[in-house]
Design a protein that fits this description.
Elements lengths: L13 H8 L6 E6 L23 H8 L3 E6 L5
Antiparallel strand pairs: 1-2
Length: 78
């Protein structure tokens, strides 16, 4: 499912858009993000868009404490 994102968007994990900046159009990648660049940014956690099912409670706290892996295919870069 294609998703449009903007590099530098504070709602996304910083490590995700940093990884995408290194990709080429049509490239597929698994982007592994350390927790400090994923959902664990101090003072900014409430500004992030968490995946469905992780927006509050114990599951969210567990996600914030872990490294995250995204599978990405860069379809178009404008």
């Amino acid at each position: 499912m294609p998703v449009t994102i903007y590099l530098g968007d504070i709602k996304l994990a910083e490590g995700l858009w940093r990884g995408i900046m290194e990709m080429r159009q049509g490239e597929k990648a698994k982007i592994k993000i350390k927790k400090k660049f994923a959902f664990g940014r101090p003072g900014e956690v409430d500004k992030l868009d968490f995946p469905y099912g992780f927006r509050s409670g114990e599951r969210r706290e567990k996600l914030v404490s872990k490294n995250v892996i995204y599978e990405v295919e860069l379809l178009q870069f404008v």
